[in-house]
Amino acid sequence: MSDRASDLISRAHEAHVVVAGGGVAGLVAALECAKVGIRVTVIEASDRLGGSIRTEEIDGLAVDLVADGFALGAPALDTLIDELGLRDAVEPAAGDAIAVAVGSPDALRVARLPVGLAGIPANPWSDDARRIIGWRGAWRAYLDRLRPPLTIGREQSLGALVRTRMGVRVRDRLVAPLAFGRFGVDVDDVDADLAVPGLSTALTRAGSLAGAISQLLPDGPAPSRATLRGGMGRLVDALAGRLADLEVEIRTGARVAGLHRDDGGWTVRIENAAPDAAASAPDADSVAQASDPDATGAPDAAASAPDADSRATPASAPGALSARDSDATPTGQIIADVVIIATDGDAAASLLASAGISVAAPASRQRDVVTLVVDAPVATATATPTATAVAPTSSAPSNASPATTSAAPATVYAAPAIASAASGIRAAAVEDATASWPHLAAAAGPRRILRVQLEAPTDPSRPGPFPPSAPTSDGARRAHSATTGALANTTSPSPSPSTSPPELVAQARRAASALLGAEVGEPRAAAHRRVVLAPPASVIGHAERTAAARAAIAGREGLVAVGAWLAGGGIAPIVADTVDEVEKVRARILFGSE
After folding, report:
1. Checking phi first, is residue 207 left (phi over 0); if not, alpha (psi -120 to 50) or beta?
2. Are 191 and 540 in contact (CB under 8 A)?
3. Cβ proximity of 175 and 119 under 8 Å
4. Is the separation of the CB atoms in 515 and 355 below 8 Å?
5. What is the mean pLDDT of the chain?
6. Sign of dihedral through CA atoms 533, 56, 464, 276?
């Protein structure tokens, strides 16, 4: 062995990296360090790894409770999947059929999304478009072709651009439901050129927004996202297993409580995470979407084996070591050369403040995600005269493929007003996971797996995410008792009597019935998690905020931050950003430079 190689190995073995957070970002960061010989310790506050990736056994089915897929064709994630030996488990979506729900609870209209991108129709006169925006909206959108070209540089906001070119109805009824349903953001806050790459050039070339969208449409249908057969938890299990092989120490049930830098390196203060605190704090990457629109630079978007308990207890995950059961002192200090903060934005801001660094975490929105397993095929929105099924999409944020139609929409996104506090529905989206994933459809048989996103309360005076007078059916209570305990396993504090899980189940069932256009039967089982939606990278100001945060962090040697609050939501961008940032860490350790 050459002296150069021996020196690099020695440097790697002498270094110690502490990773705060055991979500996807934290696990990938640990792997990237450990595989070159660096000693790594992962500290995770909750009792499990994976963050927003969580697979539970519900009614005998292995179901992803929140994050259930990823964008195809993302290089860093593709490399990780191959490295972990998961390529044979990748399953493309059967079709991301999309519908939107507009109107009011008393006059709800659910219809397929017309062919286009990010909700912008390529042809506002199409039957699909007119069902949603009406003749008046179609005529207004047609004026787009009579206006002079407008470059994105003069109109950065996607909402403002669509409103100016095509009118309020196209913005509010087609584009806004996707931005809000997927990411929890106002369409006026989305950067048009990031949401639809190439739109600026195409708009200038075509002279109209509809013409630009037509030019950007893909040639034919192709799946845009995929999952892992058996659940996304297989990714977490594979990462944990690989870290165990590399002798990475993983402590669950402990948290990094503070950081201090001196000449000897970073002093990392570790505390036991109280069970209630661990349950109430969002996980490291509990910034999840139920879908993965990575192609827009926005999220997709915060688990595997059929055994639900395999992700509920730290001992079952390969490489996981409970702070309470390890030989290491559960409370105390660790001296590290490098600290990688891989928590959510709020926790990261708190840790950075303890190190004397002030950063602003992005504003985020909470949602209650309720998964229902129901008997028999769900009657789809096609049961109503105003609604049809939606064509599969060719990219996650678009509705571009005019090819085959699906008997049922995989996802129905609600206009913001439908999920408002004044609405009796309060759902931002309903996804039929069995319509998206063939392996789930085969395992479920006549059952359907519905994932309902309910707007979580923002007003402290309203303790629940539904009207207090909402009735609770006996079926919902049976569904609660039939679960594996997942209903109580939420990232929010223990529910009060007025926000009991059975009422959440009843609320989710009513919302699913409304958005799917037909009554959803009594659920056989259900699960609930409260999640924090990470703002997408396409939100205006995201790049500037990330650059400012990293510039502040860069001023302190041996400190790095990764995660969805910096990368934007979605597994693919999180993995790519983490790999890039950790490569700088490895370069400093091995070569003394980046």
Report:
1. left
2. yes
3. yes
4. no
5. 78
6. negative
